[in-house]
Amino acid sequence: MHQAVQYCETSDGVKLAYAFIGEGPLIVRAPHWFSHLEQDLHSEAMSPVLKNLARQNTLLRYDPRGIGLSDREPKDISFDLWVSDLETVINHTKVDKFVLLGFSQGVAQAIAYAHKHPHKVDKLVLFSGYHSGSLHRADIEKEKENLDLSKALIRSGWGGDGEAHRQFFTSQFMPDANLSLHKSLNEIQRITATPEIAARYVDSLADTNVEDLLTGISVPTLVFHCKGDLRAPFAQGQEIAAKIPNARFIVLNTNNHILVEDEPSSQVFFDEFYSFIGQPKLGPSTANSSKAKSKFARIAMAAENSILIKLFIAIVTLAGLVLSLKNLF
Predict the structure, then answer these.
(1) Does 101 or 139 have the greater pLDDT score?
(2) For 10-23, how does the pLDDT look when each residue is reduced to its tens digit (9 = 90+)?
(3) Do the beta carbons of residue 83 and residue 110 sit within 8 Å?
(4) How far apart are CA 210 and CA 189, in angstroms?
(5) Measuring CA to CA, which of 28, 42, 105, 217 is 20 to 30 A from 50?
(6) Long-range contact list for 166-171, CB < 8 A, 24+ apart?
(7) Is the dihedral of CA 270, 273, 276, 279 positive or negative?
């Protein structure tokens, strides 16, 4: 899928890389920190969602500060700056009236933006996120211990060739995915950010809190949450949907925090998403069609081999029968 990476600059001098892919009505994705504009499109773990979103829409996405192709060592990182950066990209690209989509970390940013700029947002879609980071939840001492453990693992091995440290996070993001998807997500983590930036992100995520903004959201909102999500508590998704006026809540029956293409929950997400924004449901993706063709090819080959084997056995059996008859006469 073709894209042209471009740059804009924030008020504090940070260069942000952004790109458009696809054609059609506009979707703006509020970013999360597992992001790399170039590698995302080739990643087994990340590309299916992006390509499905862009099959009948224009998708605007960008790498946040410190991440991917944006400036890798920004002086400051905070939730307020993430929201300001989203405003910068939208203002720079001069886009207007779009579907604002937030996955995971992007949910709180999307909520803050929609609250501040309701005239720009046509519809708001939120997927498995949270309104309050871990430091604003119950049992703060336990949350601090978990936060310290996460940062220690990041700083000690995030950027190395070994996958063990990153696997700690991958097993929470995609617990039910196969080994190939785990390796893909491990690699995206490695190239996304330096260990220091990743640790700073974890700190800022923990201190996020947009709960007070929820009742002030005035745009049509659809909230998804994965039932067994290990990264974003299910209760947070319920609370987001309950507090945003007239929001619709859809439970996805999966433990994965990231959509996995072959899961039924992925199809549910896209069916509901496109229905919500007033577009027809997607047909099978190219990837799915290729997989299906490959599967049917294997089945056909197996059937063909089976027929040949049976034919061979029949010929041998017939030949044996002929020889037996000759011996009788």
Answers:
(1) 101
(2) 999 999 999 999 99
(3) no
(4) 26
(5) 217
(6) 166/190
(7) negative
